[in-house]
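Long-time lurker, first post. I've been practising inverse folding by hand and with some scripts of my own, and I keep getting stuck on stretches where the structure tokens seem ambiguous. Below is the full token string for one chain I'm working on. Before anyone asks, I'm not after the true native sequence, just a reasonable design that respects the backbone. If someone could post their per-position residues I'd love to compare against what I wrote down in my notebook.
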């Protein structure tokens, strides 16, 4: 087991609840493990403790068998991290920034140069490879920050919201690269609040809420346990207002401009007819009916909808 987190508690002064309240996690080498939760769920606080930037109030954190609470320097040598905030690279080109991090992590120049070439090609960054970092878009900067973490990866690679601002095409390329890190033997800890990305990309995940692990397992296990049935997604026509909850819906929640309903499998035909009638009446713009998703499991477990990060573009990508 590469990462073992046991009963970790971290409190901040004047905060009403603990940022982490008894967190337990196990991450193996070769595994992409997701931390899924709303903003403020305690994800980044946990990451900062794993890499030795914060000390837990209680509990233990072991990386590759060593206590990193007692030896935070070992964590920083063993882990590579892409932080949630943008990495300042003004004055450096992407190639220079990536190669510099690889050398600082102890790899030789030829190895770093070859791996930098592969990462730039894999993420289609060639056209910006020699552009000053101050002139890059936010999405390109995020990809460069990922490359800086991946060019000489530690045994544990931590990615904190790696796809923020990244365009859909390069987002897919990024996930292929993340998968390759795990396939090459690293343990990857992915921190996100994007439900669709978590479902597509991780082997196992923990859903965090208010500092606690609410559920843990594979995406399939969590969907089976928490979101049995079908998912009906409705986008109302703005001038028509929200439709009333139908009696066949076991849940019916608003998430931004959408309505998400859970429907028993045996009543799918009824749900389709109901939604089609609303569309013909001009009350909704579109609807989809399909198997329950990890998003439905997350909503059922946490009750969170405001921080769900799933766009119409994401839904279309999923359908494709």
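-- Answer (accepted) --
I ran through it position by position. Result:
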């Amino acid at each position: 087991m590469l990462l073992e987190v046991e009963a970790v508690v971290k409190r901040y002064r004047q905060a009403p609840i603990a940022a982490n309240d008894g967190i337990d996690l196990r991450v193996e080498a070769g595994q992409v493990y997701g931390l899924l939760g709303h903003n403020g769920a305690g994800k980044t606080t946990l990451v900062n403790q794993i890499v030795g930037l914060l000390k837990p109030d209680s509990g233990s954190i072991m990386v590759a068998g060593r206590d990193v609470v007692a030896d935070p320097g070992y964590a920083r040598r063993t882990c590579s991290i892409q932080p949630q905030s943008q990495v300042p690279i003004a004055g450096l080109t992407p190639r220079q920034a990536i190669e510099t991090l690889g050398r600082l992590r102890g790899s030789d120049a030829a190895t770093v140069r070859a791996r930098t070439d592969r990462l730039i090609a894999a993420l289609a960054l060639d056209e910006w490879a020699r552009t000053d970092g101050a002139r890059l878009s936010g999405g390109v900067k995020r990809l460069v920050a990922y490359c800086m973490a991946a060019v000489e990866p530690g045994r544990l690679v931590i990615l904190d919201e790696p796809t923020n601002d990244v365009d859909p095409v390069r987002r897919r390329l990024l996930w292929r690269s993340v998968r390759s890190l795990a396939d090459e033997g690293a343990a990857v800890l992915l921190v996100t609040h994007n439900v669709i990305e978590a479902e597509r990309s991780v082997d196992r995940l923990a859903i965090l809420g208010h500092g606690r692990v609410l559920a843990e397992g594979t995406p399939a296990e969590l969907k089976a346990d928490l979101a049995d049935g079908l998912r009906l997604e409705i986008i109302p026509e703005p001038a028509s207002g929200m439709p009333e909850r139908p009696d066949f819906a076991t849940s019916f929640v608003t998430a931004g401009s959408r309505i998400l309903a859970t429907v028993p499998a045996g009543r799918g035909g009824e749900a389709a007819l109901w939604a089609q009638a609303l569309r013909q009446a001009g009350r909704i713009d579109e609807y989809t009916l399909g198997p329950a998703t990890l998003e439905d499991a997350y909503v059922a477990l946490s009750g969170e909808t405001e921080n769900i990060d799933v766009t119409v573009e994401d839904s279309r990508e999923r359908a494709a």
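A couple of notes from the structure itself: Residues 305-320 have pLDDT under 50 and may be disordered. Residues 79 and 154 are 5 Å apart (CA to CA). Happy to go over any region you disagree with.
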